[in-house]
């Protein structure tokens, strides 16, 4: 999980909490993701940290995450592909999931996993989660062929040719991890890895909820979205301290003004 970003568009809120710990409902965004993974039987998760690394480290040190969620600290940001390369020893030559942790996602995640395993076109080695966006010029968007394979990728361009956006959730076959490992100058997944695999990236569209909560407006809108049932109780000291943070009342007040 790529969770090390500075969250500059969410300032001043990210001066208090990192973007991955921003509340969606009463829980941190990162906890929603980890609950999704837990339900799917995913039992090894890496979370890279940089901005407010100590706070993220305290979050993943909670009892429910011990032994299966590991923080990997980056004193200097390595870039989205650089993080994968730096942690190559954790990938174990198997299909791997890479998620940008600033996305708020509600979907049939089991179907996403099944699609990659059984239904993607045979020549593809990456499955990209996509979603329809109302603001394509503010997103990375893809063009796909009749089989849903990416034939063009456009990152935040004027007059984009599509409204099908990159959801920044990927399933990668081992050869992609190995290519990143060998390309030591490659640091960014979107601008350097994706273009190299045009024609070999399948797509799975999330038709439910997918938001980048990197802006105040999108974070507030996310407070109105329906929530899945939580996986864990909230009676530990960490959660009580989290709920006392003033950011909850601020976001609640601002989101109420949207009604």
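Q: What amino acid sequence fits the structure above?
A:
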């Amino acid at each position: 999980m790529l969770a090390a970003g500075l969250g500059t568009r969410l300032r001043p809120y990210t001066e208090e909490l990192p973007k991955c710990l921003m509340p969606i409902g009463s829980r941190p965004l990162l906890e929603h993701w980890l609950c999704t993974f837990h339900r799917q039987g995913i039992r090894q998760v890496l979370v890279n940290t940089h901005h407010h690394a100590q706070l993220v480290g305290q979050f993943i040190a909670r009892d429910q995450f011990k032994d299966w969620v590991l923080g990997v600290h980056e004193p200097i940001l390595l870039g989205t592909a650089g993080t994968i390369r730096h942690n190559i020893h954790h990938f174990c030559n198997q299909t791997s999931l890479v998620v940008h942790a600033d996305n708020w996602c509600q979907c049939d995640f089991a179907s996403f996993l099944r699609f990659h395993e059984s239904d993607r076109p045979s020549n593809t080695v990456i499955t990209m989660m996509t979603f329809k966006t109302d603001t394509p010029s503010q997103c990375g968007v893809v063009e796909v062929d009749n089989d849903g394979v990416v034939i063009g990728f456009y990152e935040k361009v004027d007059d984009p040719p599509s409204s099908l956006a990159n959801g920044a959730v990927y399933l990668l076959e081992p050869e992609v991890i190995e290519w990143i490992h060998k390309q030591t100058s490659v640091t960014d997944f979107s601008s350097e890895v994706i273009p190299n695999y045009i024609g070999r990236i399948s797509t799975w569209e999330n038709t439910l909820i997918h938001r980048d909560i990197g802006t105040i407006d999108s974070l507030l809108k996310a407070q109105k979205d329906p929530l899945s049932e939580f996986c864990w109780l909230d009676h530990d000291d960490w959660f009580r301290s989290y709920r006392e943070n003033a950011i909850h009342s601020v976001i609640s007040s601002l989101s109420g003004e949207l009604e």
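Q: And what stands out in the fold?
A: The chain is about 30% helix and 20% strand.
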